[in-house]
Amino acid sequence: MKNFIYILSAAALFSFSACKKDYLDTMPTDSYASDQVFTTVDNAWNAINGIHRSLYKQYDNQDQGGQGSMMIINDMLGEDLVMTAAGNSWYNPTYKWTMHRNSSASLLKYSYLFYYKIISNANMIINNIDGAVGSESDRKNIKGQAYAYRAWAMWNLVQYFAIRYDGSGGNTQLGVPVLTTNVTEGQPRATVEEVYKQMNMDADSAIADLTVASAPNNKSHINVNTAKGIKARIALTQQHWADAAKYAAEAKAGYTLMTNASYQAGFNDYTNSEWMWGSHQISEQTSYFYSFFAFMSCNFNSTNIRTNPKAINSTLYNQISATDVRKKMWSVDGSGVTVPSGGLLKPYMNKKFLAASSSSSIGDVPIMRAAEMYLIEAEADARMGQDAAAADVLYTLAVNRDPGYVKSTSTGDALLKEILFQRRIELWGEGFRFFDLKRMNAALDRTGANHSTTLTSGLMTMPAGDKQWQFLIPQDEINANKAVIQNDL
């Protein structure tokens, strides 16, 4: 039997057959044998394109639609995204903080599997591409993107399944298995420090390869700026402020912040001037009710959108300046929102995200924007005590969104709070809040806003450092891999 490049690496994880139609779906072929893929760079492009495609395809359940589903999970676990009703039950256990603490939950299993399969496919590329016949530029491009994907996947995994990185040192707590080759025997969990060491090496390798490669002409692909953006995210999580500021500044170079008109266009088009990385979806690749826009748009005619439109935390919304274009991304009373036929109007409901139409959930999914890089640079500068530099960077972004914004004269904690507020409203719904709370060791606090205790099952707060900030390792992995230790139950 041939080895197919979607073979899973982490200890047989969930026992996928090598001959089963699975992960690397690209048009029109579903999978590629490794001895065919890596003979030429032209064939090898199919492998990297397959990873891109995996970010927005549909898997087992409607809450398993690629990276878009993981973005929804991250914000459902925070305080800024508000469920307005139970809808048709998708993501309700996540909102209640029960899904990720149930080792048998299908969405928990998906969260683990999704990123490890990306790592598995990246490993096949990294370990085989050097022998492919073709241009050196193509080999560097393909390999650099694979390194970036592996770093990015590990960055996601370790934040879900491990205790947060402590910038003061140590970090001997259990992380996740580090896999740089695809093996069938069970691998133990590396320490958090070891995981970050490997992902930094991979990010550096990605930057080196992509610096000399020809730039891809499609934002579904990863270029050197995107790789530097991944490096900036890693550094921010590690509290390595100087590196975070440096790589964020380099990552955003050459990107233009969008106009206020573009800001209101639906966050669904990766040709937007400030998008750095996004999943571009065409009509032949629709994921129907699995799509990010089937849950987060205001206009697609799905049961979840009609009955459970997503809203912003009312306390957060009320702090946004009246002259800020972002104030227009939600409606206090539901007026002015394009809803599908029969759709409910709810207070503070979202109109930031628009699907292609009420009958099509197609839309490009934003994975990285230049605005995030401005916010990383500003936060890192502020945490280093470089208040003037932080205020300058913040001003460039904030005045673009709000012509009435005045450059901050705040310093210290006051300036940092202003930057973090801008981060919350700028990146709402794009999958950052759980990671932000966890990296800052901040408590969850949904009180005093429009969260319903009925819909949250009373889960309105979560103390910083509680064991519930860690996802449990899926039971299928525990059963298959005797080298893996479960998190505290």
TrEMBL record:
Keywords: Cell outer membrane, Membrane, Signal. Residues 1-20 form the signal peptide. GO terms for cellular component: cell outer membrane. It comes from the Bacteria. InterPro entries: SusD-like_N, SusD_RagB_dom, TPR-like_helical_dom_sf. Residues 83-236 form the SusD-like N-terminal domain. Gene3D superfamilies: 1.25.40.390. Residues 289-487 form the RagB/SusD domain. It is found in: Cell outer membrane. Belongs to the SusD family. This is RagB/SusD family nutrient uptake outer membrane protein.
